[in-house]
């Protein structure tokens, strides 16, 4: 990839991160919203092959952080029904609580509020921008194939370019 292409790609990431931060402020400003005071981070250790990214996130926030469905919905900028369905689906696939171990890598839950990107796209873009991880490393952390991560990243870039025009 040429230097010009890399610079454009980096600008796309910067604008996505800026947009995610502004969405965080918007969510926090909602009246009647109870958002935990401490920034909630999702450790990458909780991801598994059996659960989708949304199911993993919702299950972690519900069972490990003891948040209510409504709180999770507000944090993720999703409907209560979507969050509820994701939680029920996660319980069907995995009835046990997510096991927590030390994780060097995590991401703030507020990045997932960006509805222009999917849950997985938001996570991959964040990990790529913040930790400068390769697709193989991200794939291992999220327990996904590196080709899936690459495809997800490319889709996010295309969406990011569209939103900047």
Describe the protein's architecture and organization:
The longest helix is centred in the first third of the chain and has 26 residues, at 3-28. Helices cover 61% and strands 4% of the residues. The two termini are 22 Å apart. The model is unreliable at 161-165 (pLDDT under 50). The chain has one domain (16-27, 41-164). Strands 1-2 form a two-stranded antiparallel ribbon. The chain has helices spanning 3-28, 53-64, 69-76, 80-93, 119-131, 135-142, 146-164; strands at residues 41-43, 106-108. It is built from seven helices and two strands; from the N terminus they run αβαααβααα. It is mainly alpha-helical and 165 residues long. Helix 6 packs across helix 7 (146-164). The radius of gyration is 16 Å and the shape is globular.
List its salient traits:
2 strands; mainly alpha; two-stranded antiparallel sheet; 61% helix; disordered C terminus; 7 helices
The beta-strand count equals: 2
The total number of structural domains is 1
For the biggest β-sheet, the strand order reads 1-2
Q: Indicate the mean pLDDT.
A: 84
% residues in beta strands:
under 5%
Separation of termini? 22 Å
**Residue windows where pLDDT falls under 50 for at least 5 positions:** 161-165
Q: How many strands, which pairing sense, and closed or not: the largest β-sheet?
A: 2 strands, antiparallel
Shape: globular
Structural class: mainly alpha
- Helical content stands at 55-70%
User: How do the helices and strands follow one another from N- to C-terminus?
Assistant: HEHHHEHHH
Query: Tally the helices: what do you get?
Result: 7
Using only CA atoms, what is the Rg? 16 Å
